[in-house]
């Protein structure tokens, strides 16, 4: 009987010990793992990290100064600065109307209009010489355009065209002073030929 009682006491002690351990384990709270501060603050790859610093903008400023010289030329100075520091300077001197004058000179070479008008009026007289009044009127108009064509030829120093303008004027004038339809027709034709020659010479002078 003593032996049985001894085993019962040991078994009871083991049961109580196990129950006590289970109670202790249940009493221990579960701890949740928190990321470290360094893991939270460290940006991941590709993440843009904001900053309070603003980028600096360096703007360039260009000023232009024009001075008219005594000889009529114009000096232009362009200065470019960045943050108040000069980075470039460009100085050019020229005559402001030079390009315009060159274009005007070129355009004179193409002024065949007066020769063309002289041809048209001389042709009108040539086609109807029997109508003396109208024919002489047309030849008078042709004379005026030949005079203007002579000036055009002088402006470009085209001697051949100048000669044609002078000859055309003389032929138109002779026809203007005529009363014979045949003579009007003859001089009108000669004036037409000189007008055509003048146009051709002016085109040659522009090359």
List the helices and strands and how they pair.
Blueprint: H1 2-27, H2 37-41, E1 60-68, E2 74-82, E3 85-94, H3 98-108, H4 113-127, H5 132-155, H6 159-176, H7 181-205
Antiparallel strand pairs: 1-2, 2-3
Characterization of this structure:
- The protein is α+β, with helices and mostly antiparallel strands and 207 residues long.
- Among the domains are: 37 residues; 96 residues, IL-4 antagonist (De novo design) like domain (Four Helix Bundle (Hemerythrin (Met), subunit A)).
- 60% of the residues lie in helices and 14% in strands.
- Strands 1-2-3 form a 3-stranded antiparallel beta sheet, with no helix packed on it.
- The longest helix has 26 residues.
- It is elongated.
- About 2% of the residues have low confidence.
Rg estimate, integer Å: 55 Å
CATH superfamily of one domain, called what? IL-4 antagonist (De novo design) like domain
| Spatial shape | elongated
Write the CATH fold name of one domain: Four Helix Bundle (Hemerythrin (Met), subunit A)
CATH C-level label of one domain: Mainly Alpha
Structure class: alpha+beta
Number of helices: 7
Helix content: 55-70%
Termini Cα gap: 148 Å
User: Biggest sheet, strands in spatial order?
Assistant: 1-2-3
CATH architectural type of one domain: Up-down Bundle
Q: What's the overall average pLDDT, rounded? A: 76
Number of strands: 3
Report the portion of residues in β strands. 5-15%
Low-confidence stretches: 26-30
- Can you summarize the main beta sheet? 3 strands, antiparallel
How do the helices and strands follow one another from N- to C-terminus?
A: HHEEEHHHHH
């Amino acid at each position: 009987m003593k032996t049985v009682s001894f085993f019962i006491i040991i078994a009871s002690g083991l049961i109580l010990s196990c129950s006590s351990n289970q109670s202790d384990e249940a009493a221990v709270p579960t701890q949740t793992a928190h990321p470290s501060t360094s893991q939270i603050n460290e940006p991941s790859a590709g993440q843009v990290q904001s900053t309070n610093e603003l980028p600096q903008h360096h703007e360039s400023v260009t000023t232009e100064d024009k001075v008219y010289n005594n000889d009529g030329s114009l000096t232009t100075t362009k200065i470019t600065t960045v943050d108040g520091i000069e980075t470039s300077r460009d100085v050019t001197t020229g005559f402001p109307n030079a390009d315009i004058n060159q274009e005007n000179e070129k355009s004179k070479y193409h002024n065949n209009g007066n020769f063309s008008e002289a041809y048209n009026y001389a042709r009108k007289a040539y086609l109807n010489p029997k109508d003396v009044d109208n024919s002489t009127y047309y030849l008078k108009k042709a004379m005026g355009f030949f005079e203007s064509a002579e000036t055009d030829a002088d402006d470009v120093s085209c001697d051949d065209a100048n000669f044609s303008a002078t000859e055309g004027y003389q032929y138109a004038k002779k026809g203007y002073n005529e009363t014979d339809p045949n003579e009007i027709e003859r001089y009108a034709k000669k004036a037409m030929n000189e007008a055509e020659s003048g146009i051709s010479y002016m085109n040659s002078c522009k090359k």
